[in-house]
Amino acid sequence: MLAEIIDGAAVARKIRGDVADQCAMLATRGIVPGLTVVLVGEDPASAVYVRNKEKASVEAGMKSETIRLPASTTQEELLALVDRLNGDRAVHGILVQMPLPKHIDPQTVIRRISPAKDVDGFHPVNVGKVLIGEKDGFAPCTPAGVQVLLAEAGVETAGRHAVIIGRSNIVGKPMASLLIQPGPGGDATVTICHSRTNDLAWHVKRADIVIAAVGRPEMVTGDMVRSGAVVIDVGINRIADPSAKSGTRLVGDVHYESVRQVASRITPVPGGVGPRTIAMLRRNTVRAAEQQV
Ligand code: NDP
Q: What is the DSSP string of 193-220?
């Protein structure tokens, strides 16, 4: 069996269409959803990601602003900026791009963002709301995007066993929070694995749905996956490839070629989970605007 590819780009296009429709409706009431991204320092990967976010938001009919601060910015200066944005009625969503320079504590910054504007979904209030199942909170974009991807691909989660590899606050834990909720896109039985899990392959082999968010290139191999499982690869890793023009290429946490032989559905890297993360950020920003006005 060769797995069917879940096309993340197509799902992202659909979300973009929905967001553009919502923006058009808000525009009739004179509201333009505003997203402000704060970038501190010169991390090149973050700069590319932020540029993509900006471009995509403008396309969707939103106002997108990026504030670039030097790496020497103090924590107090950054907190003062967050305070200003919290009070700005034209700003509905605030995102402080991680990683921050070492002298700034990310948790202090995240906690300073108003939960109503925390479209990244990292504020403890939103983390709690997602876990409780309150719908007015914001779920982090990557796991929320995976949930949408599964739904759009027609993958039933109710009663299925989902094994998540990775327990980060950005992907693994919120992914579990979303999948265990009662209702559409939830009702799964969830196992979370991490670096201290004994016999990872034993757990993965029991999954109907495997979600890999490890940050280790091609770690999940075909022999670990049950025949017919759905495999979602969140990982983005750059590895050396002398045959590529750039000398490198992107791979996921899943060994695509071997897993494709046994899985029923699989997301590619790139083109799977990645495109929807930005689409979900726009969706959260539009919802933040609706909730604030
Ligand atoms: P983190 O490094 O924060 O977390 C990795 C997790 O994997 C940790 O919980 C760690 O366990 C676990 N882990 C590490 N090694 C093993 C192992 N050998 N066996 C089992 N578990 C292991 O990463 P993130 O969650 O931030 O990101 C994960 C991947 O997803 C990365 O490749 C990242 O680039 C990608 N990513 C993609 C996004 C997208 O939009 N597509 C967005 C965000 C991330 P422990 O806690 O014990 O250390």
A: E-TT-S-HHHHHHT-SEEEE---STT-B
| pLDDT 10s digits, 176-224 | 999 999 999 999 999 999 999 999 999 999 999 999 999 999 999 999 9
Q: How far apart are CA 229 and CA 53, in angstroms?
A: 32
Whether 63 is catalytic is: no
Domains, the chain, ordered by start: 29-114 (3.40.50.10860), 139-274 (3.40.50.720)
Instruction: Compute the C-alpha angle 159/137/292, nearest 5°.
Output: 145
Eight-state DSSP code of residue 64: E
Instruction: For ligand 1, pick from 236, 251, 253 the residue to mutate: most ligand atoms within 8 Å of CB.
Output: 236
Average predicted confidence (pLDDT) for the chain? 93
Do 211 and 234 touch, CB atoms closer than 8 A? Answer: yes
pTM over 0.70: yes
